[in-house]
Structures are given as structure tokens and as C-alpha cells.
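WARN retry 2 of 3 for item q-0093 after timeout on previous attempt; input resubmitted unchanged.
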Amino acid sequence: MTYNKKIDFHSHYLSETYYEYLEKFEDEKPDSFPTPHWSVEEQLKLMEKLGIAFAFLSVSSPNLSRADKETEIRMVRKINIEGSKMVSNNPEKLGLFASLPLPHEEAAIEEAKFAIEELKSDGFGLSTHYAGVYLGDKRYDRLMAYLNEVSAVVAVHPVKPSSIPKNVNEELPIPAMEFLIDTTRTFTNMVMNNIFERFPKIKWIFPHAGAFIPVLSDRIEGFAMQFRAGLSNGAPINYKADMKRVYFDVAGFPVNKQLHDLLLDVGAENLLYGSDSPYTPKIACVAQTGNLERAAALNETEKEKMFTLNAVKLFPKLENILGITAEHKRIGYDEKPLDFHEKANGLVRKIISKLYSKVFA
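OK item q-0093 returned
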């Protein structure tokens, strides 16, 4: 089956002001990883190759917290406006997850209001931490209350952990391992501070098939009694229950191990597609998408949920764009048959994913 109405929840844009920030405040290779070139035109071409009908754009790592407060606030505003203009020029193809100038909570709340009311952003892209203040920290409670009030969609993206031991694995790019560690740390921090129960209307998306969260879930549940006895606020630790409260995008290479483990704790209704472009090379995006299309861990109905239907449920505006409802009911005219290019791109994804799997088996 060719899945040609994918919704991408893990796709990044690099605007003029973001490139300016990287040049002024970051190393030549932020996160020990080269900064890719990006343009709207390249984004749309890649979407066609991957069978993506719509992509929500967000800023990746690093966030802007290395700048001084006023500079960060100013640059985040400019980056959000630049992203909004890209989206407004391609409303049938692109959406925006706005950035916030954390750890400055008051400014972040003001920017969130601006993004929703003026830019009509679809949600927010937040980092696992800002200058060492992680998302479960009580210093963000007022922001969380606002995001809860507006039932915000929030996509979390890892950044370099606030502290990394020296002289170990320094040749390994930060995204290869440390990103997964920081995602896991953040989710666990939020569980322990009862974020998901205290602010139940926020719709969270965690990246990379949950990183190490599924691997640790049994172990942390085993420690849960000790946690409950030791926490000063008396909040219960319900790790697996909180996993079911959030979405997980499947960016990266989760087939076969990560996806298998994640599905032991959550269902296909918790999955969303993500390409992780442009930081993932184009050929790897094609292989990763093809692997997901062929994944034995999911049947066709479950893949439809992951690629498309869960997204339509989360964002009803996609119904008219895609011509289907969250229940996979057609809207208006019957679905058009795939054209030559769509069929060819689907075949390429299948072939490349098979070759990629053999090379890296």
C-alpha cells in the first residue's frame, strides 16, 4: 500500500534570523553536528518524495537560550514571524509550531499569546530544557497553565543535555545518543512533577519513538513505590499511564527495536509520523519512511492511524485539506487514484528502505 497522505510532525525550518543566531552564539557545528541548508522549496520537494501531504514546521536544536534575555526575546519573535510567513504562503502544505523565549516565563507567555492570537500558530515547539531548566520544573507552572487553558499542542525536541561528562564519547555527535537521553530525562522529570495530570488539556508530542522511555518504563514502574514514599509533594508516579496520555513521533530509525518496545506500552493511536528533515539526509529520510511503510509491527489500519488519521483527529482543519475525516471517511469527491509520480516515489521508498536495511543490518 502507498501511504500518500502523511502528516509530518517532526520537520524543521531554518529562517534568516535563526541562521543569524547560530552564527553569533553557537559553535561552527552546534551539537557537534553540521547545520543543514534549508528552504521552503526544498522542503516541498522532499515532502513529495516522502508522500507527505502536510508538515508542521518547528525550530530544532539548539534553542536560543545562549543569547542574553532581550536578544533571545527579539530573535524568537522574528523567527516565529518568519515561519508564519512561510506557512501563510503555503497554507495547504505547511503549519507552524512556534518557539518560546524560555527560560524567561513571563516573556514566553506573552510570545505564546502572540503566536496564537496574531500568527495563528498550530502549536508550539519546545526544547527538553532551556539553560538547564527542564520542562517539568515548577518555574514553568504559569506557562503550563496557559498552554493548558488554550489546549495547546506542544511538540518536544531534545537539545544538548545541560551537563555531559567530559572525556567520554566526545567523538560521537550529540544527537546520536545524548538527544535520546535528554528526551527520556525530560519525560521522567515531567512524570515526577505530575505535569500530565495537572495540565491534562495540553497535547504533548515526544520525539524519536520515545527515545529510551519504553526501555525504562518497566524499571521505573518497579521503583514507583519508593518514588511515592519519597516525594515531598506526594504525587503518584504513573509512568506507563502517562505514556498513554501523550503522542510519540516516529522520527529517526525506530524500526524494528524502538517501535516494537514502544507498542508494548501504547497503541497505534499514540503514534505520529515524523521525517526529522532537514537534519536527516534526504536519502535517509526516504529509507526511514520506507521502513515505516513496511514495518511488520503495524498492520495497514494502524499505519493509516500513524501516518494520517491521528493527525486529523488532533487537527480537524486537516479534514478539508486531505479530504478525509479521522474515521477515514471521504469528504466530497472520491479519492483520486495515485498518479505516476506518486506511484514512482512509493516504489523508490520501498527499494531504498530495503537496501538501507541490508546495509545497516
